[in-house]
Design goal:
mainly alpha, single chain, 0% strand, 84 residues, 71% helix, Helix Hairpins
Length: 84
């Protein structure tokens, strides 16, 4: 029963985080999510490579994977818009 309560709490927190994340994301946060250092020049190849690498690592996460993958996708979109 305690395990179920902990899992339920984790799922609720993940959903809250996803809902809060629906807003805009600053470029610096997007770079942090994709592990791109601030001085690194942005290119679409770099952004796509980092997003793919981090997505592959996080696909095995259980309930939080959808939110994590959405964050990665959003970060990728923000940075691609930044270099246009």
């Amino acid at each position: 029963m305690l395990i179920l309560a902990n899992v339920s709490k984790a799922v609720v927190e993940t959903i809250k985080e996803c809902l809060a994340f629906a807003g805009a994301m600053p470029v610096t946060e997007a770079m942090n999510i994709l592990n791109i250092s601030e001085g690194t020049p942005l290119s679409s190849a770099l952004i796509n490579r980092q997003a793919s690498k981090i997505s592959a690592k996080n696909k095995k996460a259980l309930p939080a994977s959808a939110c994590i993958l959405k964050k990665i996708s959003s970060a990728e979109k923000v940075l691609l818009r930044e270099i246009e």
